[in-house]
Amino acid sequence: MSETEVIDPVTRVEGHGKITIELDDDGGVEDAKFHVTEFRGFEEFVEGRPVWEMPEITARICGICPVSHQLAAAKAADQIAGVELPEGAVRLRELLHMGQVLQSHALSFFYLSSPDLVLGHDADPAKRNIEGVLEEHPDLAERGIELRSFGQDVIAALGEKKVHPDFAVMGGVTNTLDRSDGESLRTRSEPLTGYIRETIDELAEIFADMDEQLLDYATYATGYMGLVDDGSLEHYDGDVRLTDEDGSILEEIDDAAYDEIIAERSTDWSYLKFPYYKEAGFEAGQYRVGPLARLNAADSVDTPEAGEEYERFMAAADGPVHERSTYYHWARLIEMLYCVERIQELLDGTAVYDGIPNVAAKPENSRGVGVIEAPRGTLIHEYEVDDGGAVTNANFIVATTHNNGAMNRGVKSAAESFIQGPEIPEDTLNTMESVIRCYDPCLSCSTHAIGEMPLEVTLERDGDVLDHVER
Amino acid sequence: MSADSEASDAPADTAGDDEDARTTVATVCLGGCSGCHMEFLNVDHGLVDLLEDVEFVASHMIVDEKEVPEADIGIAEGVVTNEENVEVAQELRENCDTVVAWGDCAALRGIMSLRNDQDPEDMLEAAFDGKADEHSEVPTGEGDAVPRLLQDARPLDEFIDVDVFVPGCPPDADVMEASLAALARGETPEISGEALQYD
Ligand code: SF4
Questions:
Q1: What's the predicted TM-score (pTM) here?
Q2: Which of B30, B123, B173 sits opposite A41 (nearest CB)?
Q3: I want to staple A452 with a disulfide (CB 3.0 to 4.6 A). Which of A16, A63, A87, A309 is the partner?
Q4: Which DSSP string corresponds to B148-176?
Q5: Digit-coded pLDDT (tens) for A219-263
Q6: Is residue B33 lining ligand 1, measured as CB closer than 6 Å?
Q7: Residue B79 Cβ contacting ligand 1 at under 6 Å
Q8: What are chain B's domains?
Q9: Structural domains in chain A?
Q10: How far apart are CA A7 and CA A453, in angstroms?
């Protein structure tokens, strides 16, 4: 019979989830599960509403990456309208998106994960947070605050609000960028690439000093998914590429065909589903998304500084791709560099100031699919509508959902490496959670799931609680 | 209302104890999108000043604390949508002197109440059985793997007494910061005019 430990809630991630670990009679790990404990029902309650409301409503799925949902919904709505967007609208949407990916990655790295990385997994939990980092490494924390703030200000310059801006609509965006706002953002962006590169160097040192077990507790082979544009890293619009565990291309498809390659499975112990690559089946068809997966899937990164860091990153891999979940952090920093450079390029161009922001759009087609690279990975919105444009069916696969299989595997592998016997040391709790944090899961986002991430581990044998740890 | 709390240097307890005389704050996320918490972080560098007067003893985005600890101020984001949210809301009320509802979801019920005209079981059936492969199971909240959904998503004050409402989706960071600073000074925050948002 088995014992169960529960980590509930997992903190310093966005959303609601918990971990349970079942031990066998010898105290070995029999199974470990990451449960997502909130169901929000967006897919169901949008039915019956007009499709042009989707960008505004579905943004509320997630306050961390509202822009990604807004854009995925708007792209799907464009398809339903059958319109081709003007260049200005496309670039304005991309600019909005780059601001969003930057602020979200800054939150993940500096606010949520840097406490473990710079203070240590075994640091006093009361200090292991952004306040502790502000005390011990004020430069690092201040850089993080500035990067996040800059990304949010890019969003606000376009959509007025930082969280839940109403900017992308069916057929384009509401307005162009004011030139003086663009110029002041451009000036403010100057030091940011330097901040990020310094942080990458610091992270490389942290990894070099890191105990191997800690570095490798969540290293495993999976497939990888990401959007690419001519093989290059892409976030706003491109083809969906799925690779095998060596990074060789299995599929490269137009986004509307996503359901030909992906199926989903649900379990009774989590509100988060498990997608998989249909052709390989549920077990073998697990893949990862997000910063690490995108860099693994792409052939190149086409901005100068991020391109250089990408080469350095790939050269550091043990094989053809990176399998270590801990390296998500490194990949995230490289993407932040890419975002800042793309923002600079877009601000230096004219399309965001003088382009046409939108075209007239009304429902013409019955199905639309919008796929975008949200900060945490590939985000898919699919809608079917009736003749009047009312939604008759909606399906969303959010980034965190794609990673569900990998997160569960990571939790299990961490449990196997660190837990023997009926007691759980405090730093092990945090190590287990930090597996989850590598993926930066946005539990709010996983519409099928998630809420709060407290951490509580209960150890049970034959239904009796043997040990229970919480913070 | 003034948003210059960054400069305020006279918090309620000026006891001058070397160890934390700061006002303690616990924040929780019920059925929300984390957007209220995110917007709060938009105080950006203001966080550094705010931390002089206020200590976050629990806040899922930034602090490793799993329980709802005792605190002077308890803040909730999100609507009450499942059984776990009810428990957390009750703990917040028991453990905190002042309870604040942040955002349209907690204060008014917000976007997720769009689900209220559907039966939760039908919704779960449709989402998990209808939109997944043939080996799928529906998480119904039987047992304790996941919390059971309530019939409707309802605002916080239908479950516990709420002292302060800060509406908006999300409320502006300056408004959140100023209201927190006012509470830390022992005052009731005035939210009116432009600061009073409904979106
Ligand atoms: S009020 Fe708005 S921002 Fe706050 S939790 Fe609700 S949907 Fe999110």
A1: 0.85
A2: B123
A3: A16
A4: PEEEEEE-GGGTS--SEEE-SSSPPHHHH
A5: 778 899 999 999 999 999 999 999 999 999 999 999 889 989 998
A6: yes
A7: no
A8: 23-116+150-187 (3.40.50.700)
A9: 1-37+411-470 (no CATH), 39-410 (1.10.645.10)
A10: 9
